[in-house]
Specification:
About 60% of the residues lie in helices and about 0% in strands. The chain has 4 helices and no strands. Helix 1 packs across helix 3. The radius of gyration is 34 Å and the shape is rod-shaped.
């Protein structure tokens, strides 16, 4: 028998069983969230891994990312005084810029021809 080079798991002349190949699934953020919530409720990671057909390291990665996201969300400041002061400064800069442009336009219209000196 000849060796099947297209099947990486085949040994000797055996052909690998393609029906046992894992199905590749796309995991949406919502599905990952549900899995992470199950982990947070205390379900064993090895049992979830077997049930869902997902490697343990990947489940732990999702769990760690979720914890980091929770932590950063809780660290975010609401009503940050520095942000409010910066927003007020930008607003004032915008007002001054607009006022300056309007004054320039008014001055240009009031004196369309600047006084010129004679060339004598």
């Amino acid at each position: 028998m000849e060796k099947d080079v297209n099947c990486p798991g085949a040994a000797g002349g055996e052909r690998s069983d393609t029906s046992a190949a894992p199905e590749i699934k796309r995991w949406s953020a919502n599905r990952k969230k549900e899995v992470v919530l199950r982990l947070m409720r205390g379900e064993p990671v090895d049992a979830l891994s077997r049930e869902l057909g997902i490697e343990i390291y990947r489940l732990e990665e999702w769990h760690n990312k979720a914890l980091q996201g929770i932590e950063s969300a809780l660290k975010a400041r609401e009503n940050d005084p520095l942000a409010a002061e910066l927003d007020a400064a930008f607003k004032r800069i915008g007002e001054i810029t607009m006022e300056n442009e309007l004054l320039r336009e008014k001055a240009r219209r009031a004196h369309p021809l600047a006084p010129r000196r004679s060339k004598k």
